[in-house]
């Protein structure tokens, strides 16, 4: 690698690692072409000013912890891999740059996702249960998806989704003639999705729905639903749905979550 290709790359990596460092930004500005183009989670845009501004304000400033491997040079294109600490859903960032006359003209950062882990045993523990039970109060209701008898998919927020056991969740369906209840007889499969943008906690829960006719279970599901939801069905005309969970996947404060019913 020549100094002409190395120095622009090193200036760019330094700016990615320390996006708020004024000296790093100034050094990057010196090696950006006027018509530079960038794309990726750590800076994008067209033109020097736009690229500099976006590089200085990445939504996920992770690259200070990256360990950069030796660059690979192919003509005027240089690619370098930055490995990230273990435990993240992203294991590395691959940075590709194109150099023309000693200036950076193209920049790209691509995320390298961690390979899927082997699922652990299904266990909706207290931490997951607490997130689900407080979803509506947190203004991040659980989204439910199911398919009706005609094969049409439906998606809607469900404010009554609640923990039920280590292998099940529940919800109250206040419309006894609603589409979800009608779908159970032909396709009981359901997917429940939760995400909190503030904490980046997310869960995707898949399972099979069934209506419980046990009066105690039915009353318990209704009583554990948020008050605002109970007020929509004061005469308890709806039905209690139990979802026998098959899998849970996502991320929380402990890292990646991947579990499946044995």
Write a brief caption for the model.
The protein has helices at 3-17, 22-31, 48-56, 126-133, 179-183, 215-223, 227-230, and strands at 32-39, 45-46, 67-68, 72-74, 77-83, 90-100, 103-113, 120-121, 142-147, 153-158, 162-165, 168-173, 189-196, 201-211, 239-252, 255-260.
Number of strands: 16
Which outline best applies? elongated
Radius of gyration: 25 Å
Overall CATH class of the largest domain? Mainly Beta
Class of secondary structure makeup: alpha+beta
Any key phrases for this structure?
262 residues, 7 helices, alpha+beta, Nuclear Transport Factor 2, Chain: A, disordered N terminus, Pnp Oxidase, Chain A
Describe what this molecule looks like in 3D:
The chain is an alpha+beta fold and 262 residues long. It folds into 2 domains: 111 residues, Roll (Nuclear Transport Factor 2, Chain: A), CATH 3.10.450; 141 residues, Roll (Pnp Oxidase, Chain A). It is 23% helix and 41% strand. Strands 8, 9, 10, 11, 12, 13, 14, 15 and 16 form a 9-stranded mixed β-sheet that branches.
Topology:
Blueprint: H1 3-17, H2 22-31, E1 32-39, E2 45-46, H3 48-56, E3 67-68, E4 72-74, E5 77-83, E6 90-100, E7 103-113, E8 120-121, H4 126-133, E9 142-147, E10 153-158, E11 162-165, E12 168-173, H5 179-183, E13 189-196, E14 201-211, H6 215-223, H7 227-230, E15 239-252, E16 255-260
Parallel strand pairs: 1-7, 8-16
Antiparallel strand pairs: 1-2, 3-5, 4-5, 5-6, 6-7, 9-10, 9-13, 11-12, 12-15, 13-14, 14-15, 15-16
Helix pairs in contact: 1-2
């Amino acid at each position: 690698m020549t100094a002409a290709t190395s120095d622009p790359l090193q200036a760019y990596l330094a700016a990615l690692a320390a996006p708020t460092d004024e000296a790093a930004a100034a050094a990057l500005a010196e090696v950006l072409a006027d018509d530079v183009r960038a794309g990726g989670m750590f800076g994008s845009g067209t033109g020097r000013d736009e690229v500099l501004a976006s590089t200085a304000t990445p939504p996920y400033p992770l690259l200070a912890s990256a360990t950069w491997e030796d660059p690979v040079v192919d003509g005027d294109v240089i690619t370098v891999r930055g490995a990230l600490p273990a435990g993240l859903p992203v294991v590395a960032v691959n940075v590709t740059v194109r150099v023309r006359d000693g200036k950076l003209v193209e920049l790209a950062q691509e995320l390298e996702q961690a390979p899927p882990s082997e699922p652990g045993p299904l266990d909706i523990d207290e931490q997951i249960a607490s997130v689900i039970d407080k979803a509506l109060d947190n203004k991040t209701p659980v989204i439910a998806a199911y398919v009706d008898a005609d094969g049409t998919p439906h998606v809607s927020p469900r404010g009554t989704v609640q923990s039920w056991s280590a292998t099940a969740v529940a919800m109250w369906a206040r419309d006894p003639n609603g589409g979800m209840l009608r779908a159970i007889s032909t396709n009981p499969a359901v997917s429940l999705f939760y995400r909190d943008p503030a904490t980046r906690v997310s869960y995707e829960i898949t399972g099979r729905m069934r209506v419980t006719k046990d009066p105690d279970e039915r009353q318990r599901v209704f009583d554990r639903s948020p008050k605002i939801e109970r007020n929509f069905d004061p005469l308890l005309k709806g039905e209690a749905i139990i979802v026998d969970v098959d899998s849970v996947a996502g991320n929380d404060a402990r890292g990646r979550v991947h579990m499946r019913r044995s």
